[in-house]
């Protein structure tokens, strides 16, 4: 660690960024955090301020803001800036600024599903059987002959909407047509992956890496569907808990050996060394763990639960990822469970109202309850209002999973706005 304090530029406006700001602010190494653009919660984090005068997609303006304010550490929260090459841009135009996040080449592991599937095949990393297609006719023919149930995935970024799990052959044909012919997701549908439907429990693992050392946070489980019992349409994620008992210690070791290690080593070998947070989505099938996808940044809402258990200094860990010194660090994880319940706007993931006034009572940190904002903003009058679909989340830690879950639902009671909806069964599968 240099004697220079970290002056952070954090890009993003979701629950993940509120959580990152909250955790980074706890570090003695961190002097200030500028969040572009931030949300109604990040503005209140110690040492933090929201910056709304700079557009988060304008890399030149971000470099200028960083230089004008002596910021020395860039943390891009979401995938879009990473896939667009923000890391390389900063390295080129502001070489003195550390960037926590992979290069554009490495970010293809999230930015292109066909690329990541081919990577897994090259490195014999277990994943669903698949074929990639750029030709609509060929993809259509394949659907007629394929013997297994399929999942259809648009290749590029589609804000969590580019994956279809068809119930029957006609739904599969329709999904393929929307993606490849009707261009529902634009260029993200230039190619598609058609893969085998896997069955099992789905888990997420967040791993910090400097390209060699891998330090993983405890395994988490997200809840993608909007409604209880995993019904209704997919969302960005309605709640998480960690550690999930649905994977054993032995299975985690297997995941390390057959997935994480070959992934990080393979990326280095191919000249796209991974520095940052690698999110591996896995299905625990009866034939062992299989990778569903990689993301190249912290998960949202996995981070809210996982970082609530992290006792280590996150800023030091992130800096070590940038400087290639992660081997000198260990993760200190609280021997607790954590649970996050996301509160969404009525109608989400379909159309929903924005600008609904909200009331949020102070969470009691000593009780292990935290409220992380996502789609919120402050009106000119200082009134907190909704501004997105996934609005806000309550996270809690507890000595048992049951306790963490109960406290998180107590935390939800601190939140009030018209039309609010949330799942009542977060962690239900694990508690059964
Ligand atoms: N092969 C598969 N078998 C079963 N379910 C899958 C498969 N691939 C994806 N899914 C489901 O679809 C969700 C979204 O797919 P994913 O590959 O994570 O894409 P994205 O997060 O970019 O939308 C996953 O979280 C998982 O629930
Ligand atoms: Mg996913």
Automatic annotation (TrEMBL):
Q: Which residues form the ATP-grasp domain?
A: 117-323
| Pathway note | Purine metabolism; IMP biosynthesis via de novo pathway; N(1)-(5-phospho-D-ribosyl)glycinamide from 5-phospho-alpha-D-ribose 1-diphosphate: step 2/2
Record-linked Pfam families: GARS_A, GARS_C, GARS_N
Q: What is its EC number?
A: 6.3.4.13
**Keyword Cytoplasm belongs to the record:** no
Give GO terms: molecular function aspect only: ATP binding; metal ion binding; phosphoribosylamine-glycine ligase activity; phosphoribosylformylglycinamidine cyclo-ligase activity
The keyword Ligase appears for this protein: yes
Residues in coiled coil? none
The ranges of region (Disordered) come to 222-244
Q: Which UniProt keywords apply?
A: ATP-binding, Ligase, Manganese, Metal-binding, Nucleotide-binding, Purine biosynthesis
List the catalysed reactions. 2-formamido-N(1)-(5-O-phospho-beta-D-ribosyl)acetamidine + ATP = 5-amino-1-(5-phospho-beta-D-ribosyl)imidazole + ADP + phosphate + H(+)
What biological process terms from GO does the record include?
Answer: purine nucleobase biosynthetic process; purine nucleotide biosynthetic process
- Family in the record: Belongs to the GARS family.
This chain's protein is named phosphoribosylamine--glycine ligase
Task: Give the gene symbol.
Answer: ade1
């Amino acid at each position: 660690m240099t004697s220079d304090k970290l002056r952070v530029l954090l890009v993003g406006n979701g629950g993940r960024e509120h959580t990152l700001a909250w955790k980074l602010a706890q570090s003695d190494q961190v002097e200030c955090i500028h969040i572009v653009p931030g949300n109604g919660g990040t503005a209140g984090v110690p040492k933090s301020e929201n910056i709304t005068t700079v557009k988060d997609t304008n890399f030149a303006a971000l470099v200028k803001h960083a230089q004008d304010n002596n910021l020395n550490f860039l943390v891009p929260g979401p995938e879009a800036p990473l896939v667009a090459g923000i890391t390389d841009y900063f390295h080129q135009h502001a070489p003195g600024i550390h960037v926590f996040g992979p290069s554009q080449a490495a970010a293809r592991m999230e930015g292109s599903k066909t690329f990541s599937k081919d990577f897994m095949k090259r490195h014999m990393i277990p994943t669903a059987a698949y074929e990639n297609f750029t030709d609509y006719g060929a993809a259509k023919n394949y659907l007629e002959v394929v013997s297994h149930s399929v999942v259809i995935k648009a290749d590029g970024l589609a804000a969590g909407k580019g994956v279809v799990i068809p119930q029957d052959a006609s739904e599969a044909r329709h999904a393929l047509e929307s993606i490849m012919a009707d261009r529902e997701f634009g260029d993200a549908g230039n190619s598609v992956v058609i893969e085998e439907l896997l069955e099992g429990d789905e888990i997420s693992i967040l791993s910090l890496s400097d390209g060699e050392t891998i330090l993983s946070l405890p395994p988490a489980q997200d809840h993608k569907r909007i409604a209880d019992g995993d019904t209704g349409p997919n969302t960005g994620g309605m709640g998480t808990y960690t550690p999930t008992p649905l994977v054993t210690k032995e299975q985690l070791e297997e995941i390390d050996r057959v997935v994480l290690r070959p992934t990080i080593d393979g990326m280095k070998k191919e000249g796209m060394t991974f520095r940052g947070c690698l999110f591996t989505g896995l299905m625990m099938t009866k034939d062992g763990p299989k990778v569903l996808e990689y993301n190249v940044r912290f998960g949202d809402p996995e981070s809210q639960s996982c970082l609530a258990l992290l006792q280590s200094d996150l800023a030091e860990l992130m800096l070590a990822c940038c400087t290639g010194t992660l081997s000198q660090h260990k993760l200190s994880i609280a021997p607790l469970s954590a649970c996050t319940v996301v509160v969404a706007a009525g109608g989400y993931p379909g159309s929903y109202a924005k600008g609904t006034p909200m009331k949020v009572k102070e969470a009691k940190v000593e009780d292990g309850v935290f409220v992380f904002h996502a789609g919120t903003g402050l009106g000119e009058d200082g009134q907190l209002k909704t501004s997105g679909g996934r609005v806000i989340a309550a996270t809690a830690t507890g000595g048992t999973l049951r306790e963490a879950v109960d406290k998180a639902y107590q935390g939800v009671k601190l939140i009030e706005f018209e039309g609010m909806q949330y799942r009542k069964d977060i962690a239900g599968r694990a508690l059964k």
